[in-house]
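Molecular record:
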Amino acid sequence: MRGYGFVGVGGPDQQAFLDVPVPEPGPGELLVRVRAAGVNPGDWRMRNGEYGTVGPAVLGREVAGTVVAVGPDVTGLGVGDEVFGGCPGMVGGWAEQALVTASFAAHRPPEVSARDAAALPVAAGTAFDALDNLTLPAGSTLLVNGAGGGVGIPTVQLARARGLRVVGTASEAKQDLLVELGATAVVGGRDVAHHVRAAAPDGVDGVFDLVGGDALRAVAPLTDPAHLFSVADKPLVAELGGRDVARDRSTRVLDALAALVADGGLDPFVRTVLPFDRVAEALATVEDGHTLGKVVITMAGD
């Protein structure tokens, strides 16, 4: 079958369509005919060698599709079910058929399109887990550093749904979007701490950082380190006394996210949809770093 990935560690010149065998589902795995697959920064970072995979390998971390086979020890999901979820080892989704981890898969409600469902496990799942880690009560103020990105947009929506006040940092171009989502928007940069204090004179109760580096250093003093979380810079957040987000890659999280989408409480914010033949363009769009919303690829017929 046809897949798309990389043949060796490096830049876009290492990407290629690959002729790969149909995988056999092992214990706790599903084989899914892929209808849609999400595109994430982790995909080009995988190609760059940041996660230790040297290739050749099929990229793709999250998919939606139809179950065509189940491995041993799988319960609750069967052949013919429409599902969405994450791929084992967070690779392999950009193919005509892909393995999905059953414990991180869920039924796709009919109200949720395959395109929207494929965008949920990585970005929205990370946002959901971050808010669970923070455990802020309703009425608290959360600072989302980098709120206009792929994880930041669902974080703002999910935080607002939990009754939190959100202050979000983003570029000038994304300020209006954050306001539409219900956040108080401030521009990041050298004076970000001053801008946040002006927007939240009573202080913030927690910080979720999606930027890292100097931007993380700038906002870290605004909260108790126990309420400082980052998925962008693990060494620095540890140095500052904060924590990485503990991921709960489970059906529980996916069911909750799908229910919110079905009820209109969460927009997966899929704004770029490209066919599988243009997957290289889709990855380049994400790697460029200026895309607004999620990028999803679809297979022929979907």
Summary: The CA atoms of residues 4 and 17 lie 4 Å apart.
